[in-house]
Each structure stands twice: as structure tokens, then as C-alpha cells.
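Design job #97: recover the sequence.
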């Protein structure tokens, strides 16, 4: 008995030690960004190794919105990210229903083709996307970014939702068919409410990917009309003669990260349900 208690105590110590290391590894960069963003530019070199600035200031955050229209960049990122999520879910939900519940010729090869699209690096598909965007006269617009972001969000959402749909009991579909519901009615009125946790999880992850994307946003925009925040942050280098670019970059990074943290906290219950999905509550 004593040996078992000692082993259990040792396990608890190791477990919480690992948790502490992981939390430190994940949270420390964000903490350091917040600390740097509150440091006066002239004191950054002197207080680089301090845990907190002696005289925290908010001037760096004000400077972010002064040196360029960062509010417009935030709006661009919000519209593009939300648009990408909406289009991705609208397209992937019917596709996941078909892949998860129907049998048809070429189903497995088609799924692997969709997955293969996400394997290619962004730089490999960039020339073709650029030619398509120019052909459709979408350059420097929200639509160009939404269209290009679907390249990496659609495969992810289709595969994730397909795995979830496969685990939904067929009794739900059969009951809808008996009531005379068509496949589309079954999808939107019966299955989508059950898929809410998976939709929330995949939608949030797709939103984060679209919000943080840099290469396509840099290539398909030329000014602040459609320029998103990752590209705007890159433009802060040398943007102001009075503030350190590094303090501006960290301040802007904190501004961009806070909405993502808020979204995670708002949908944390749905996210957990989506990640542990596999049973239907009845």
C-alpha cells in the first residue's frame, strides 16, 4: 500500500511538472510580447531582461493606430476570416454529408485528392492562384483572399466534418426519410444541429488560420484597401521615427491575438465537445 501511494504521488508530481513546462512554453512568448508592448521605446534595451517595465505605457498601442490605418487592417482580417469560415462550412457540410453517409463511385480517391490539395506548400499554388485572381479582376479585394484561403481551409473542414458525420447514428436519417424529408432537409434540419460542436471547432480553427495567413495576403493585396493585419504588422518596420519598430510590432501582435483568445473562451465548451465528439446525446 505504501509503495502504491508513493508511486501515485510521484506520478502526480511528474504530471504537474509536465503541465507547468507546457504552460510556460505556450504562455511565456505572449507574456513577453505584452511586457514589451508596455515598455517605452527608449527603455527597451535597458529593460530587455526585466520581468516587467518600470513605467508601463500605452503609447505603443496608440502609435500602432497612428502610423497607419490599423483599424482598417483589422476590419479586413475580420471580413476575410469570417467570409472564409462561412464559405468553407457551407461547402464542406454537404460534402461531409455525402462522404460520410453515401456510397458512390470514386468516393475514396476523391477524398484523397481533397486531402492532397492541403499537402502542397502555399508557394507551389501561388502562381496559379495569382493568375486566376488577375483573370477574375479580384486583385486587392476581400474576395481574392477568401478564394485563396479556401485552398487550405476546405480540405481541413471537409475531412474533420466527414469524420464526425460518420459517427452520427443512421437512425436520425431514417427517421427523417420516413417523415418525407429530402437529403438537403435532412442535412440542414436534422444533422446540422447535431454537428454544432464540430462546426464550432472546425470553424474556429479555420478562422484562426485565415486570420494569421501572411503569404497570400501579401501577394494578393497592394494597399490598405484589403491588406490584413499580418501584412500590416510587417509594414511597421521603420514606420515611425519616434517609436521602436519592435515595440510597435509586439503591441500590434497583442491587439491581433486578444480577439482569438476571446473567441476560444467564448466557444470553449463547443470546442471541447467537438474535439471529443463521437456520441449523440438523446
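Job complete. Output follows.
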Amino acid at each position: 500500500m505504501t509503495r502504491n501511494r508513493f508511486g501515485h504521488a510521484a506520478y502526480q508530481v511528474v504530471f504537474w511538472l509536465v503541465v507547468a513546462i507546457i504552460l510556460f512554453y505556450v504562455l511565456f512568448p505572449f507574456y513577453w510580447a505584452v511586457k514589451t508592448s508596455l515598455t517605452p521605446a527608449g527603455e527597451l534595451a535597458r529593460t530587455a531582461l526585466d520581468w516587467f517595465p518600470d513605467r508601463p505605457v500605452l503609447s505603443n498601442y496608440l502609435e500602432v493606430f497612428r502610423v497607419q490605418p490599423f483599424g482598417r487592417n483589422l476590419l479586413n482580417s475580420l471580413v476575410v476570416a469570417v467570409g472564409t469560415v462561412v464559405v468553407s462550412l457551407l461547402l464542406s457540410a454537404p460534402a461531409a454529408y455525402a462522404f460520410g453517409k453515401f456510397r458512390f463511385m470514386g468516393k475514396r480517391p476523391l477524398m484523397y485528392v481533397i486531402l492532397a490539395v492541403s499537402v502542397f506548400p502555399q508557394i507551389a499554388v501561388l502562381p496559379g492562384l495569382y493568375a486566376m485572381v488577375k483573370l477574375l479582376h479580384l486583385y486587392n479585394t476581400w474576395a481574392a483572399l477568401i478564394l485563396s484561403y479556401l485552398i487550405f481551409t476546405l480540405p481541413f473542414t471537409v475531412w474533420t466534418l466527414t469524420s464526425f458525420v460518420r459517427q452520427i447514428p443512421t437512425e436520425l436519417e431514417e427517421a427523417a426519410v420516413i417523415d418525407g424529408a429530402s437529403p438537403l432537409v435532412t442535412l440542414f434540419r436534422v444533422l446540422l444541429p447535431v454537428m454544432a460542436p464540430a462546426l464550432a471547432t472546425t470553424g474556429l480553427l479555420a478562422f484562426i488560420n485565415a486570420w494569421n495567413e501572411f503569404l497570400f495576403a501579401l501577394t494578393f493585396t497592394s494597399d490598405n484597401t484589403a491588406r490584413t493585419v499580418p501584412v500590416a504588422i510587417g509594414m511597421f518596420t521603420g514606420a515611425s521615427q519616434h517609436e521602436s519598430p519592435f515595440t510597435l510590432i509586439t503591441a500590434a501582435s497583442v491587439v491581433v491575438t486578444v480577439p482569438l483568445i476571446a473567441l476560444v473562451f467564448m466557444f470553449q465548451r463547443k470546442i471541447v465537445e467537438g474535439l471529443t465528439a463521437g456520441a449523440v446525446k438523446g
